[in-house]
Amino acid sequence: MSRSTALLPLLLLSTAAVAHDHDHAFGHDHAQTAPATAQTITPQRSPAERNATITAPLPEDQAAMKAHVMFLASDAMAGREAGTRDYDIAAQYVAAQFYAAGLRPGGDEGGYLQKVPLVGYKVADKGSAMWTPTGGQAQELVFGEDFVPSPVPNAKETSLSAPVVFVGYGIDAAQYGLTDYKGADVRGKIVAFLPGTPEGLGGEERAFFGSAANKATLAAARGAVGAVQIDMPRANGRQRPFASLARYYDAQRVTWANPDGTAHAMTPTTPVLGTLSQAGAAKLFGKDWAAITKAAASAKPRFSPVTTRGQMTVASKTSFKPMDSSNVIGLIPGSDPKLKDQVVVLSAHLDHIGVNEGGDGDRINNGALDNAIGIASLIEEAKRFKAAAAPKRTVMFLAVTAEEKGLVGSDYFANHPTVPLSSIVADVNLDMPILTYKFEDMVVFGADRSTLGPIVRKAVGAMGLPVAPDPMPEEGIFVRSDHFRFVQKGIPSVFLWPGQAGPGKAAVADFMSHRYHKPGDEVDQGIDWSQGPRFVSVNYAIAREIADGAERPVWNKGDYFGTLYKGPMAAK
């Protein structure tokens, strides 16, 4: 599960996808690879003690799930980081399991693998940035004091000079009372905006509108030629020194590659140039900046766009490092003559975060719960489908790469689907089910947004479980995992998680604090293997209802994401 800076060290997740960018010099929807932090040493047990736990006999269905996790989360897989041979071995394992389960290959050239060309990209040098007021002398925007550059994913060299327009938080959503672009003409200009969102938005809306990538996309749609973010104190008043951004300015980010070897960019004509400090912004906006920052700190900020009297000039270089990875795809063809060409996708990410660069003790991030157990669930769910009558709709089992890099593998698939995109009717995503306790309910993120909701409640209810409300709505989890790449194509989607009733809340908090994205996420951490088949049963029941349902899922009338991404909409 992609790291979400807002959720650590407690609850919860990415992410990635679109909100994990706020703590970097400037975020795209592509994760950065920063130097590893000091590692917490996992308490060590003797090999005999560990082996006794790992090899303890289990019923057949539990043992089958555990066996997948034993392999995928073993030290031999070295954390399954996308772009490594270790990940490639894991992908071959999943392909072999899909074959053994009787799935048809759904990847490239008649195989199970869909090649995903990845590329690492980073700032090649410190570049230069200048501010030239109208009728005045050019002033340097000092690296690390005034400005920190960002890599431009689709260009080796960038040189840009234009006036700057400040647009508040850079959000245009009149239904939420946010019209930061009102009266602004940003064509041919650089847009400057604040990170995050003002108070008052729900969690999903805050995560979505606060995404720097979405802000840049809006700027591009309005004709801006570039964008910069302005660093601001956090809501709790604690401020990271701006100079600390400079320490990691050349950290590598990863996304999928264009045919020319450059990186895919959501806004190819509007490069994100970097981040201005408060001091840097004051150089551009002069005496007006004090009033602007005061307005930003108010409980209900209201902005009027402000255009600088002068031009900002930025020159930078970006370097690229190609790498390869793959998604793994298996299919069960539909049996109904009218519905077989429609596809239900069941997705889970296969990658994890690899090996920490420094520190003592265990440095391998095994990723047993994140997300080897999700992949194990996907494999066992495929077996359930094959053992039963053929589904009416085609069911695709999709194990994606590079989720931890920013939902990259799912984004590649959504832009390079192996079946017609219009044929995909729903995605059900499995990401990091924390199965260390007997779950008493289910949380299905996104169920209230489409007609998948009644389907989910029927299937989960038949298992004797209630569907619980989002236990942490302030975190906007719906927009932070691989299913959201399908949402962005207008496809109704949900993300499943064991609920937090009973012992769940404490168990989730314990995992997130002590083992999430750490070497302690291992097969012997105390997983309750009896919950694995229960989780698979719930997932299977939901997927089966979708696959055999008479009606294609549609978005609820007026749903924000269904409207934004032009998905099929309920009439009423």
Automatic annotation (TrEMBL):
Peptidase M28 domain ranges (all copies): 327-532
A GO biological process held by the record: proteolysis
Coiled-coil regions listed in the entry: none
Keyword hit for Transit peptide: no
SUPFAM superfamilies the record matches: PA domain, Zn-dependent exopeptidases
Pfam short name (any one): Peptidase_M28
GO molecular function, one term: metalloexopeptidase activity
Top-level lineage group: Bacteria
Keyword Signal carried by entry: yes
Signal sequence region: 1-19
Keywords: Signal
InterPro entries: M28_fam, PA_dom_sf, Peptidase_M28
PANTHER family associated with the record: METALLOPEPTIDASE M28 FAMILY MEMBER, PEPTIDASE M28 DOMAIN-CONTAINING PROTEIN
Protein name: Peptidase M28 domain-containing protein
